[in-house]
Amino acid sequence: MISNTWRNFAGLILLSALSLSGEVKVLRNFTLIDGTGKSPAASSAMIIDNGRITWVGPVAQLKVPASAVVTDLTGKFVMPGIINLHGHLGNTVGLVQDSNLYTKESVEHDLKTYASYGVTTVLSLGIDKDLIFDIRDRQRAGRPSETRVYTAGLGLVYKGGFGGGLSLPGVPTPIIGAVSEVDPAVAQQARKKADFLKFWTDDNYGAVKRMPYDISKAIIETGHKYGLRVIAHVFYLEDAQHLVDQGIDALAHSIRDKPVDSALIASMKRHNTWLAAPTLSREDALFAYLKTPAFASDPFFTRGVSPDVLKTITSPEFQKKAAADPNISHYPETLKIGMKNLKALADAGVRYGMGTDTGVPGRFQGFFEHVELELMVQAGLTPMQAIVAATGSGAEFLKAKDLGTLEPSKWADLIVLGKNPVTDIKNTRTIEAVFLAGNKVY
After folding, report:
1. Strands 414-417 and 77-80, how do they pair?
2. Domain encompassing residue 164
3. Does residue 332 form part of some domain?
4. What distances in angstroms separate CA 250 from CA 64, 141, 254, one per listed residue?
5. Is residue 3 part of a domain?
6. What is the mean pLDDT of each run of 10 residues along the chain (442 residues)?
């Protein structure tokens, strides 16, 4: 027979083990930017247990749990981890993009790079091989130590068109030539439990064919039939208008050929269509290397790239290659139009997030998300609007109820900053620590 004394002793051991497994952490004396759009709250504190926020509020009301590890963050600013609604994984190493490079190791390298820059969640849009689902499912079963991934699996392209495997040979993209080919292609992505369905509609400045509207309509309707929200790569206002009227859930880029009009704005609001990812930094990168970019000497950039990459992007040969792009003259104007259209849609009440199209050569993961935030502010948004787009709104678009804001029950995905990003958006770059699910990963 076990005595009561031994029972009590065993109980104390069990309670101690539970406390240790709880990994209770307290952060205190920081200014909170919670991702909801509320004004920053000075003298804040937070309790994290098992990776989740259990309490957040004024430090004067903090009751430190007996088992907690306390970190003082006096003078620091804490905001949610950044959510990128348009990235790509695994196919680029340095400045080389090749579908054969896509491995578990290359994908996880990219996820760790994103995390080191405070990008704690990424939606990978349309060129993922099947191994992405194992990585995603393993993350969701526990507490990841790398950036959380959502994926559109393999996006759909039009035969003779643009995107996916037509732009990156070797990606097993479903190529659609007729409406009858849509259902089996969409069903395949649904069986894999893709988080979204993506397709490309663009002609690369007239070089290839644009997707016909009967096919885009079939993709959208079939995606919805299988329970998938649908996102389209778009460039032209005309295409955007048709896609929104057809029920598209989100646009993966800002419209870049002409200013948005009242008809598109009204339709986007009526259909609750998101501008998921303005991708202003994508346009900026297309002509950034005509000369040595200013960021080439920025330690925040150089810490994330190899010496070989840095040497290449500052070389005359690389700049000459950039200048030889037949469409180089278009890019500064498309950036200006994209910026104006973001501001117009935001002012009109259209929902929007933050996305970059990083993960291809010259669009560097992690760093360019901060460039995107700066460009959003240059477009006319306030720093707080840009921050909310990249945090709370991003989570809302993903329907990720546990992410995006620093509130009780949410995962403690957060960034500790040395300076206030609400007064200067470039202060998102003053990263001193990154936490994912309550664990410090950088």
Report:
1. antiparallel
2. 81-403
3. yes
4. 43, 28, 11
5. no
6. 34 34 87 98 98 98 96 98 98 97 98 98 98 98 97 98 96 97 98 98 95 98 98 98 98 98 98 98 97 97 97 97 96 98 98 98 98 98 98 98 98 98 98 98 97
The reply to whether 180 falls in a domain is: yes
Amino acid code (one letter) for 138: R
Single pTM value for the model: 0.94
Three-state secondary-structure class, residue 78: strand
Total number of domains in the chain:
1
**CATH number of the domain residue 113 falls in:** 3.20.20.140
Which residues have CB under 8 Å from 154's CB, separation 6+?
126, 127, 128, 129, 164, 171, 172, 173, 174, 188, 189
Number of neighbouring beta carbons within 10 Å of residue 384 = 17
Q: Helices in 64-154 by DSSP H: which ranges?
A: 104-116, 131-140
